Amino acid sequence: MHRLSGLDLLRAIAIVWVMLFHSFIVGGLGPHFAWLSRYGWAGVDIFFVLSGFLIGCQVLRPLQRGERFSFAGFYERRAWRILPAFVVVLGIYVLFPVLREASGLAPWWQFATFTLNLLIDYGRDQTFSHAWSLCVEEHFYLLLPLLAWWLVRRPSTLKFAAICIGVIALGIVLRSGVWLHDAALNPPRNWFVEDIYYPTWMRLDGLLMGVMLAALRVYRAPLWKRLQRRAGIALIAGLAVSALALWLFRDRTGLLANALGWPVLSFGFALLVFAGADRSSLIGRLSVPGAGWLAGISYSLYLSHKIAFHLVQATLASTLHGHGLLAFAMYGLAALLLGSALHYLVERPCLKLRERRSCLASSVADTDADDSRTVPQSA
């Protein structure tokens, strides 16, 4: 899929929003910027919807064409995309405790096995805890191809719709039940983060909404094109639904927010992604300087920004105290410098290596195909 400026803009908004939210680790950026950071956690949910849509299209397209899906090829491409920068940042956290934004770090194997979001003791191990969302994504990458392959063996719109409704309903029931149980017992730990906010099965709404968009685009292409003519309406509706969801989340840890807020928020963001996927829509045509670049380095930024924040705090905290705008600029600049360094020195070279390997494999496959047409085949 060619890069779409509307989706790049959403990705850029998401990463900036997340970094603003995580400014709490350095004491916040002052009252003048508090309104920007309060709901910054929702940037992760924009990423979830985008991942569901983009990865869903990658998985569903060959299946829709009746081609043999390469599980090994898919997982290899994901590994080249995710692991190099992740391993470098994890190595920095493990080997250099002075760079940690908090005192406790979960065991390295929880990161390596992508089980951090299921096993973390959040009260003790908050360093690099934002890797929880990467764990959710990895579980999604692992299961989506298998589920999609199973579904297309006997394709059924009714079956797909039933699964989607079931996943949403199950999420509502699970979150409500766990909230009521934990609120009644009030265990001596951060049960909201550990039992509701982090676990994969509690956070499937955004990924599912993205996959639903991908299924519509791949399997109902004429309908997708007709609906895209109303992308402007989808944009307005997406903003309205997202605003409603954030209103539900005015008490972020409350029952109403966690029972109904996640599917509502994900639906609102899905409408925005739908609008952003149309090049002729308002958001698709909007050219914001630097948005494409931010989107390009967003993964490296996400991994490394807390290290940058901590470095600035450790070296310049006394100088920046009371200077909200200067602190805002310094923390942002440090995050951009470290994130872009990780991107250009690690992430991008590995992506180029991945493409060279892919081209080489394609060339070998083409050569084998040519040979098979010229060499007599035995029965």
What does this molecule look like?
- By secondary structure, this protein is mainly α.
- The chain has one domain (5-358).
- It is built from 17 helices and no strands.
- The radius of gyration is 22 Å and the shape is globular.
Order of helices and strands: HHHHHHHHHHHHHHHHH
Give the biggest beta sheet: none
Output the radius of gyration.
22 Å
**Structural class from helices and strands?**
mainly alpha
Distance between the termini: 41 Å
Share of residues in strands: under 5%
Using the alpha-carbon principal axes, give the shape.
Answer: globular
- Helical percentage: over 70%
Contiguous low-pLDDT stretches (5 residues minimum) are 368-379
SS elements, strand count: 0
Q: Count of DSSP helices?
A: 17
What number is the mean pLDDT? 91
Number of domains: 1
Name the features.
mainly alpha; 74% helix
How would you concisely characterize the structure shown here?
This protein has 17 helices and no strands. With 379 residues, the chain is mostly helical.
How is this fold's topology laid out?
Layout: H1 5-21, H2 34-37, H3 43-64, H4 71-95, H5 108-112, H6 116-119, H7 132-153, H8 157-185, H9 191-197, H10 205-219, H11 221-228, H12 231-248, H13 255-276, H14 282-285, H15 291-296, H16 298-320, H17 324-374
Helix pairs in contact: 1-3, 1-13, 1-16, 3-7, 3-10, 3-13, 4-17, 8-9, 8-13, 10-11, 10-13, 12-13, 16-17
